[in-house]
Amino acid sequence: MSSALLPGLARPHVPDGYSLLLSGPTGAGKSSYSLGFINEALSAGEKGIVLTFDIPKESVLESAKDLGYNLVGHGDDLMILDYFSQRPGNLNDVSIALHRTVEDCCKKGRTRIVVDSLSTLALLTSNDSIPPWVLQQRTRLRKLPSLTLFCYDPGTHPPTLKLTLQNILDGTIELRLDERDERGFERYLRISNLRGVGHTTGWSRFEIVQNEGIRFL
After folding, report:
1. pLDDT above 90: residue 115
2. pTM for the full model?
3. What pLDDT was estimated at residue 56?
4. What is the 8-class DSSP label of residue 36?
5. How far is the C-alpha of 145 from the C-alpha of 1, rounded, in Å?
6. Which of 84, 121, 136, 195 is the most buried (most CB within 10 A)?
7. 78-102 residue pLDDT tens
8. Quick one: 18-216 is in which CATH superfamily?
């Protein structure tokens, strides 16, 4: 799968079945980036799945609209599994719903998936439950024409959890938020690792622009 949202790749392609960690602090732009990731897929005729624990489905659609991404009207090409409005009973329930949806979408074409976020899921369950759950998802998704982003805020959990997730997943995209006194904040992104795919590790500055979305500078 190719993506203009991954600057620094030696070639604009990530193998099907890859799962990536999108790591960054609160306010760095993880959710906005994820919506751009899904919008890019839908614009290319692919399918999209959003598994949301942080905000309800209506807020996902409203946030996308503010960015200029019209996610409404895509029918079965976009599926939003809302686990904010209805908290999951257990991780097994989430796994069953996710993979039923993923398999249905992947039968129709390439599919991008966003899990937003592992940090909230860890608070709902436990830090220890997250690595085996992510490994299970990564193993199943590896066999499908998919590309997945697992959003994660490292500031709310032990450093060892991020290291474990990085070892499980195929790559890590890091977001950084720098404070600039009179200029407010500047946002940066880099691919810190991506298994088997050539890339640079330099930081690329980007902005989140209303009605335009993610714009790299």
Report:
1. yes
2. 0.96
3. 97
4. H
5. 9
6. 121
7. 999 999 999 988 999 999 999 999 9
8. P-loop containing nucleotide triphosphate hydrolases (3.40.50.300)
